[in-house]
């Protein structure tokens, strides 16, 4: 009998080594190597005897049955998947524990089952009673979802191969699944990979759509992430701040749809509620009249989204000032700070800088640069920005405000929510002509914006203002010009 080759597999990226080491050279993570059977699933004896079968090669132009989609019955979920679940496709849904993955999928599967489709929900984590309890709480007990608490992939595949092919199968979660073909413990990269492979094979063979639920590690990666991510057709991540009720479903990869759409939900006592107008939600708890806040008119996928950026700039007591960001790219913040410092004469090296995107949203657009800069300067000079203004525009390294896509959609959304003014790139003005009835403040360079905000700061009554604000002119070496 052939000796098994043991090797050390990185549980984060799947790279294999023949010796243990503290750091994975492939992904740079520490302490992620675990001993596994590297030869994978098929014993050597079987592998060497198996003769390859022949298959027919097809032409590109041939007729294939179209990929019909199954609507989930939830508009926000359909938006992210690109219109529903494609037959035979496999989708991975990742998210922190407790974020609401099981809740979302219980709701969606119930709606689809009620619509008359055969839907199977396999729970590897919770007992049937727990799943039923959740369904009861959601008022969905009557939905004809077929339920099981199983973890063996072989058993699941045999069971599901009988009778009509299920239209959709939910596996909650892939980390709890195990297959006989490999010897590693459940939850290891090898098991996750082999189990996912078996399920994907089943989906492709039968045409059933499968949703795999995946856990996310502390640093936001789906455990055994890359190994599963490249095998599935779509990857969605379910995000949100634990303390807040908003939840955002984001497509990270999608072979059958867009990757920039988000679905917005609100967690209530009765499950997840779809939020059809997210801007209203994200602005609902606005701190009107505080310096350091600016409303960004953003776009998520095809949908405009207004969200508040909050900045706090305070003198530091540390040698190296703190820069902390929630909901935005830290390197983008560094860039905006550098441009403010180099081209606008705003000295921030003696200040701690905090930036937060309200409502637990994560912004990926560079168009948020201008709003971030406005919030930062507003906090620094302690001058409130106009509460009826929205900001958008990308800032280049030279301090020029560059145009961004979809100006009319952004303006329209701002007008709809009662905003009166927009601060936007000069070059986008043409696109915005006659739009929405907002007063447009088109600027060409970040210096202009900084000067405007600084002027607001110095116009306010000096006596009532804190010492911080009185120091304004000194901080703007060129800013007032
Ligand atoms: P769950 O779907 O179990 O999370 P996951 O599968 O991602 O681990 O949801 C867990 C949280 O959601 C739990 O803390 C309770 C909360 N919740 C509600 O607030 N309302 C509800 O109706 C339900 C079912 C759960
Ligand atoms: Mg769960």
In helices, the fraction of residues equals 25-40%
CATH superfamily of the largest domain: P-loop containing nucleotide triphosphate hydrolases
Low-confidence stretches: 42-46, 461-481
Q: Tell me how many strands there are.
A: 23
The spatial strand order of the largest sheet comes to 8-7-9-10-6-11-12-13-14
Large-scale geometry:
globular
User: What distance lies between the first and last C-alpha atoms, to the nearest angstrom?
Assistant: 82 Å
Count of discrete alpha- or pi-helical segments spanning 4 or more residues: 14
Sketch the major β-sheet. Answer: 9 strands, mixed
CATH topology of the largest domain: Rossmann fold
Each distinct ligand: thymidine-5'-diphosphate, magnesium ion
Q: What would CATH call the class of the largest domain?
A: Alpha Beta
SS content category: alpha/beta
Q: Average pLDDT across residues?
A: 85
Describe this entry's structure for a reader:
With 481 residues, the protein is α/β, with parallel strands linked by helices. It folds into 3 domains: 6-40; 69-276, P-loop containing nucleotide triphosphate hydrolases (Rossmann fold), CATH 3.40.50; 281-480, Ribosomal Protein S5, domain 2, CATH 3.30.230. 28% of the residues lie in helices and 24% in strands. The protein is built from 14 helices and 23 strands. The strands form 5 sheets. The chain has a 9-stranded mixed β-sheet with strand order 8-7-9-10-6-11-12-13-14. Strands 17-18-16-15-19-22-23 form a 7-stranded mixed β-sheet. A 3-stranded antiparallel β-sheet has the order 2-1-3, with no helix packed on it. α5 (153-161) runs parallel beside α6 and α10 packs parallel to α12 (446-459). It is globular, with a radius of gyration of 27 Å. 43% of the residues are buried. Mean pLDDT is 85; it is low at 42-46 and 461-481. It binds thymidine-5'-diphosphate and magnesium ion (MG). Magnesium ion binds at residues 101-102, 125, 172.
């Amino acid at each position: 009998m052939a000796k098994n080759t043991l090797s050390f597999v990185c549980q984060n990226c799947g790279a294999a080594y023949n010796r243990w080491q503290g750091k994975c050279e492939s992904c740079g993570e520490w302490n992620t190597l675990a001993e596994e059977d590297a030869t994978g699933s098929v014993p050597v004896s079987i592998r060497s005897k198996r003769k390859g079968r022949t298959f027919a090669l097809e032409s590109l132009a041939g007729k294939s049955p179209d990929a019909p989609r199954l609507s989930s019955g939830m508009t926000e979920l359909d938006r992210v998947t690109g219109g529903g679940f494609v037959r035979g496709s496999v989708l991975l849904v990742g998210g922190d524990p407790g974020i609401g993955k099981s809740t979302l999928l219980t709701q969606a599967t119930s709606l689809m089952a009620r619509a008359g489709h055969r839907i199977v929900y396999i729970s590897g984590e919770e007992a049937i009673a727990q799943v039923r309890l959740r369904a009861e709480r959601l008022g969905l007990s009557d939905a004809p979802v077929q339920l099981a608490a199983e973890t063996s992939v072989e058993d699941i595949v045999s069971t599901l191969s009988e009778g009509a092919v299920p239209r959709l199968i939910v596996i909650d979660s892939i980390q709890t699944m195990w297959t006989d073909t490999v010897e590693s413990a459940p939850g290891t990269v090898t098991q996750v990979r082999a189990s996912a492979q078996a399920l994907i094979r089943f989906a492709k063979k039968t045409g059933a759509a499968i949703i795999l639920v995946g856990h996310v590690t502390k640093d936001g990666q789906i455990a055994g992430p890359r190994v599963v991510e490249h095998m599935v057709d779509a990857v969605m991540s379910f995000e949100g701040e634990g303390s807040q009720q908003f939840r955002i479903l984001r497509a990270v990869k999608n072979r059958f749809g867009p990757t920039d759409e988000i679905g917005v939900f609100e967690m209530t006592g009765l499950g997840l509620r779809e939020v059809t107008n997210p801007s209203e939600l994200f602005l609902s708890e606005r701190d009107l009249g505080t310096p350091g806040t600016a409303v960004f008119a953003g776009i998520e996928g095809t949908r405009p989204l207004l969200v508040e950026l909050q900045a706090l700039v305070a003198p530091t007591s540390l040698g190296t000032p703190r820069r902390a960001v929630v909901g935005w790219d830290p390197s983008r913040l560094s860039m905006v700070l550098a441009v403010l410092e180099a081209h606008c004469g705003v000295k921030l090296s003696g200040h701690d800088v905090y930036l937060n995107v309200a409502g637990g949203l994560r912004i990926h657009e560079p168009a948020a640069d201008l709003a971030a800069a406005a919030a930062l300067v507003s906090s620094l000079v302690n001058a409130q920005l106009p509460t009826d203004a929205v900001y958008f525009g990308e800032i280049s390294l030279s301090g020029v405000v560059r145009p961004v896509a979809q100006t009319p959609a952004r303006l329209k959304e701002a007008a709809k929510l009662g905003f009166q003014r927009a601060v936007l790139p000069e070059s986008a003005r043409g696109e915005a002509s006659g739009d929405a009835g907002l007063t447009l403040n088109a600027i060409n360079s970040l210096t202009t914006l900084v000067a405007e905000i600084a002027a607001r700061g110095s116009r306010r009554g000096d006596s009532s203002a804190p010492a911080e604000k009185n120091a304004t002119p000194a901080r703007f070496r060129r800013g007032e010009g």
